[in-house]
């Protein structure tokens, strides 16, 4: 079978993977891996988008040098961030990073002016301070010259596809994350755009995952010495691709896409936009083939990653396996945090913030790296139980266990503690969830797979799933009660 190429861009690294479908077995080869580090300039935190495009070209070159001619390619990435294209077709400035502080306070001001009910009722999207709507509102408040010269709005995969093909399209799964897309009307929401002072003309046609959206520019083919490669839209929000790759056999399943962010929810046929969903701050993001992802964002392993960076700055270097080993030896439930407290959103000295949180909530602050990592992982596992219970309540479904996918499942301690916390089995795998979802959407578009359910069955047959059974139920039930009391989370 011919190979196809998937680019999977995360908030800290990216990779190009070559996929083959051989007698209903998926074979994946990593061609190229690269860092994706935001760049601070003055008071702004930005993405180095041209470096990312350079790395995408390197992936094509490495495919060429391996003797491969991909039959197609697609890109998935994180959500909400974007670039603006000017009248001359060129990018206006580097895209801002969603953790940049230019949106501080903007969500609160926008909600006060437009009302929470209006925004959620028209979009069904969870309120997060870095959502695209608030990034654009921040530019408008600042009278940014970027908006004055902008002709088109493109999210990160849209933008990179434009660099590759010269064609501009907005992809559905990513468009829904902006809090500017109306899923009930299946279009960009003009009243919301006009209310924040943004021209609807910036926003183009919305294409579905699996749509063919161009082929490589002739100039790029000449530069790289390669032939024409068709370009497809995957579910370009990486969580959309990860959920497409969940190897579920049952129609009603719960998933956790685990990485820098943890995203937990279930797949539904139509968005749930009601008072309860708004109160619980759930989101309805577009999925593949007419589905929606009812889910909630959880801060995730960002807290651990940022803690490790803080220790490195202080001259203490640890690998992640070393930190996990230290956590396993630390006392259980010494301290707990609410992972989604706003104090953990921005980059900085995360161990100091964890200690500050614990002191402010009357706990003994964790002192050693092992104690801090254990605090992070136990708190995440308990937050997973909380969100899983809310997902069941909101969806009206009962789940027999939890599918965990993504790079975070390499943390076996987190997988086991998640099973312990929810009191149900955790099925962990595959690690390359987003990239596999990207690949199978391309194969479905090319009639190599019939639909998403055949794709999920093939994924399950191609990659191992590790089962974690719950343990120490009473201990974790008691810890959950302590966690709820400390955090004051509603039920």
TrEMBL record:
Pfam families: FGGY_C (PF02782), FGGY_N (PF00370). Residues 4-242 form the Carbohydrate kinase FGGY N-terminal domain. It comes from the Bacteria. Keywords: ATP-binding, Disulfide bond, Kinase, Nucleotide-binding, Rhamnose metabolism, Transferase. CDD domains: ASKHA_NBD_FGGY_RhaB-like. Residues 254-445 form the Carbohydrate kinase FGGY C-terminal domain. Belongs to the FGGY kinase family. This is Rhamnulokinase. It comes from Paenibacillus lignilyticus.
């Amino acid at each position: 079978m011919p190979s196809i190429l998937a680019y999977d861009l995360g908030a800290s690294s990216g990779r190009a993977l070559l996929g083959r479908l051989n007698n209903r077995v998926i074979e994946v080869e990593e061609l190229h891996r690269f860092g994706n580090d935001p760049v601070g300039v003055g008071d702004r935190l930005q993405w180095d988008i041209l470096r990312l495009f350079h790395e995408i070209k390197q992936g094509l070159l490495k495919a060429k040098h391996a003797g491969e001619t991909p039959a197609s390619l697609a890109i998935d990435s994180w959500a909400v961030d974007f670039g603006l294209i000017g009248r001359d077709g060129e990018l206006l400035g580097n895209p801002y990073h969603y953790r940049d502080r230019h949106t501080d306070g903007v969500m609160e001001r926008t909600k006060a002016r437009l009302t929470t009910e209006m925004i959620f009722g028209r979009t069904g999207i969870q309120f997060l301070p870095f959502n695209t709507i608030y990034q654009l509102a921040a530019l408008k408040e600042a009278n940014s010259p970027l908006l004055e010269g902008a002709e088109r709005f493109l999210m990160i995969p849209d933008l990179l596809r434009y660099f590759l093909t010269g064609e501009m399209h907005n992809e559905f799964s990513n468009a829904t994350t902006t809090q500017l897309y109306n899923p009930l009307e299946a279009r960009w929401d003009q009243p919301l755009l006009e209310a924040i002072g943004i021209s609807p003309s910036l926003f183009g046609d919305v294409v579905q995952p699996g749509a063919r959206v161009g082929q490589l520019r002739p100039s790029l083919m000449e530069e790289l010495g390669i032939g024409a490669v068709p370009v497809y839209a995957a579910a370009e929000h990486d969580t959309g691709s990860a959920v497409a790759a969940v190897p579920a056999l049952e129609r009603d399943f719960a998933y956790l896409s685990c990485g820098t962010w943890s995203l937990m929810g279930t797949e539904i046929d139509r968005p749930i936009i009601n008072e309860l969903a708004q109160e619980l701050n759930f989101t309805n993001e577009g999925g593949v083939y007419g589905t929606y992802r009812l889910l909630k964002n959880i801060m995730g392993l960002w807290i651990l990653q940022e803690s490790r960076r803080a220790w490195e700055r202080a001259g203490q270097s640890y690998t992640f396996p070393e930190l996990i080993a230290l956590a396993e030896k630390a006392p259980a439930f010494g301290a707990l945090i609410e992972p989604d407290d706003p104090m953990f959103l921005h980059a900085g000295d995360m161990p100091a913030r964890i200690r500050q949180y614990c002191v402010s909530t009357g706990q003994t602050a964790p002192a050693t790296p092992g104690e801090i990592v254990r605090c992070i992982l136990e708190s995440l596992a308990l937050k997973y139980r909380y969100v899983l219970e809310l997902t069941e309540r909101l969806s009206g479904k009962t789940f027999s266990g939890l599918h965990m996918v993504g790079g975070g499942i390499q943390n076996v301690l987190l997988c086991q503690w998640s099973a312990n916390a929810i009191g149900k089995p955790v099925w962990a795998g595959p690690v390359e969830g987003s990239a596999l979802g990207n690949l199978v959407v391309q194969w479905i578009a090319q009639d190599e797979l019939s639909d998403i359910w055949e794709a999920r069955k093939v994924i399950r047959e191609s990659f191992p799933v590790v089962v974690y059974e719950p343990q120490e139920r009473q201990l974790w039930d008691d810890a959950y009660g302590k966690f709820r009391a400390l955090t004051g989370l509603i039920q």
